Amino acid sequence: MKRIVNIICSDKSLYAGSILIGIIIIFSLTGPLLSPYNYSSQNLSEALQSPSISHPLGTDYYGRDVLARIMHGGQITLGIALLATTIAVLTGIIIGLISAFVGGWLDRILMRLVDIMLGFPKLFIILLVIGMGYSSIGLIILFLAIFSWMEIARIVRSEVLVIREQLYIKSAEAIGLRRRRIIFIHILPNVMGTIIVSSVLLISTLILIESSISFLGLGVQPPNASWGTILTEGRIDPIGTWWISVFSGIFIIAAIIGFNLIGDGLRNILDPKFTENT
Amino acid sequence: MSLLTVENLSVINSSSGRSISILKNIGFSLNSGETLAVIGETGSGKSMLCKSIIGLLPPGFLCSGNIHYTSSDNTKTSIISAEKSDLLNIRGREIGMVFQEAAASLNPVVRCGNQITDVLSVESKIDKNKAKKQARKLLETVGLSEPERIFHAYPHQLSGGMAQRVALALALAGKPQLLIADEPSSSLDSITKKYYLNLLNRLKQENNLTLILVTHDVDEALSFADNILVLYAGCMTEYGRTGAIKKAPAHPYTKALLNIARALKEKDFPTPIPGEISSLTNPPSGCRFHPRCPKAQDICRLKEPPSIDISDNHSVRCFFPAETI
Predict the structure, then answer these.
(1) Backbone angles phi, psi at A274, to 5 degrees
(2) B110 → closest Cβ in A167, A170, A189
(3) What is the pLDDT of residues A132-183, one digit of tens each?
(4) Nearest CA-CA distance, residue B301 and chain A, Å
(5) Which CATH superfamily is domain A17-31+61-270 in?
(6) Cβ atoms of B49 and B42 closer than 8 Å
(7) Residue B306 backbone dihedrals phi, psi, to 5 degrees
(8) The pLDDT of residue B157
(9) A178 to chain B: closest CA residue
(10) Would you place residue A273 in the very low, low, confident or very high pLDDT band (cuts 50, 70, 90)?
């Protein structure tokens, strides 16, 4: 634990990003427990109040507390992004490894598949499918994952191809280690740095995509809330009900900046080229 | 008892479209407990010989001939035609190898102690704590004064000599009978080098190891090995007991090498061998050494010299071997 704190403190952007994301996560997780309001309970007599002491971030058209909704939306938005990233990264690692180790025609097929998948306009396809009426959080996660494993797969494949020619892999072979052991103990740890950096950056991309879908009304459906859903509720009168969109928008921006800062910081730490002192 | 027998070993690299002969007709046998020194210039195929013995030639390299290894339970294995799973059992457990650049042969992101522990727990199927204890002991046996610090260090935190010894510990973790050390001392300074060679010698006696030592340093080979194999451009020029070769080198190339070593020892200016080592992609006809040989005749350009047995265990490939005294 102390080592992790030391690592975080060693880089300014990692430090700033971790604090920002830490605050957002704690806020989203503990907030709903402390708030007197439920994210979905309507109170029409209190509709469209501007920020006040009883409703710090105001209320929306149905009298729901915006703060409570943003806190709940944080869980949904971050949850979707994190889950989709995990699935995408695992898929990417597996496909990258297969591609690098099996090689030959399978490698060629998988890499062309990556090219094809990268060529798809992913937002458009997600909108098309979800717009046909099949919207659910599970489906959103699945689609986000399907359209974002490719870069990880490419990175893993190319790094593995480089690393397995290194002398320490030859030496591990000379010691008589089995191939599976060499992959998991000697090769994967060397790729991990790059994977971690690109997964963190992927999280922020996915937050943005999920928010865009929800903003267009096709993602997370009311009364459930994600930050994008809340953002779109203030769209009808952006000036008169500014608090609905502004605050949810601030959270989206903060989360993306936070994850990008963490990604930058991790890259500085993990890439020996950037390391000045260890 | 002969532990390793190499017969007629030839290695051809055909990966670039045409076949290049890397090694040609190598043959020797190594008894258990003995040391063989392989000497020769850079590019003479020394490392390739080591890699073919352990069965780790890169793809595109074809081996012919025979390499017989007799393992500790007296089963004979032909390395060239062995199944992959048999090779996995021989590597590490029977034949260990230390690579030329020790620092690069350690995984940069895994702590040294963990690398050794991992090998120990796989090879001898013991639990982690026991393996950790053994790894610490192993670091001590290779002469590291602070085993505890090295155990937790990453390879980049070690000096060249330390890394070399950690790599040695790693190679010894599987308790091999035969240890191949591919130029273990080339990256060390002269004091560390001496120390390292003494260490090798001590470990060899303690564990009854058989050693193949690849080296540039003729003096090192003479003082250290029981047998010497001289390679030139992939051809075996001379092979024999160290004493015999030291006393009466039969091949002009061996003679030249010994003269240089002697001159260096006496702080004299050595007479270099004229020319440079012949390229493997376009080898000279006949004897590959003839362009640089002071004794070369017409026949040397036309025909490959046969292997001549001068005495027991002393053979040379030359049409005009020096007279033995």
Answers:
(1) -90, -15
(2) A189
(3) 877 788 888 998 999 999 999 999 999 999 988 888 888 888 888 888 888 8
(4) 39
(5) MetI-like (1.10.3720.10)
(6) no
(7) -80, 165
(8) 86
(9) B88
(10) low
Q: In the prediction, which pLDDT does A277 show?
A: 45
B117, B107, B122, B198: which is closest to B158 by C-alpha? Answer: B107
Section A51-56 average pLDDT: 80
CA atoms of B170 and B130, how far apart (whole Å): 16
Asked if B119 and B170 touch (Cβ cutoff 8 Å), the reply is: yes
Q: How far apart are CA A219 and CA A226, in angstroms?
A: 9
Residue the block writes with tokens 């599987």:
B174
How far the first Cα of chain B sits from its last, in Å, is 29
ipTM summary value: 0.76
Dist. CA B87–CA B81, nearest whole Å: 10
Domain segments of chain A: what residues?
17-31+61-270
Contact A141, A80 (CB under 8 A): yes
* A112 interfaces chain B, CB cutoff of 8 Å: no
Would you call B277 helix, strand, or coil by DSSP?
coil
Domains, chain B, in order of start with CATH, read: 2-94+176-317 (3.40.50.300)
Rounded-to-integer distance, Cα B18 and Cα B257, Å? 32
For residue B40 the two structure tokens come to 């020769």
Intra-chain end-to-end CA distance of chain A, in Å = 19
Place of tokens 């690692």: A93
Helix runs in A164-187, H state only = 167-175, 179-181
CA nearest A189 in B: which residue?
A: B109
Interface test mutation site (partner B, options A164, A165, A168, A196, max chain B beta carbons within 10 A): A168
Which of B54, B104, B110 lies nearest to residue A174, judging by beta carbons? B54
Q: List, as one string, the DSSP characters of B237-250.
A: EEEEEHHHHHH---
Region of residue A56 (phi > 0: left; psi between -120 and 50: alpha; otherwise: beta): alpha
Nearest to A65 by CA among A43, A92, A33, A90: A43
Report the distance separating Cα A34 and Cα B258, nearest Å. 87
Backbone phi, then psi, for B166, in 5-degree steps? Answer: -65, -40
Residue with tokens 């991790």: A266
Q: In a structure prediction context, what are the per-residue pLDDT tens digits for chain B, which is 325 residues long?
A: 688 888 888 998 887 778 888 888 888 888 888 899 999 888 888 888 998 998 888 888 888 888 888 887 888 888 888 888 888 888 888 898 988 888 888 888 888 888 888 888 877 777 888 888 888 888 888 888 888 898 988 888 888 888 888 998 988 888 888 999 888 877 778 888 888 888 888 888 888 889 999 988 888 888 888 999 999 888 888 998 988 888 888 888 888 888 888 888 888 788 888 877 777 888 888 888 888 888 888 888 888 888 888 887 788 888 888 765 4
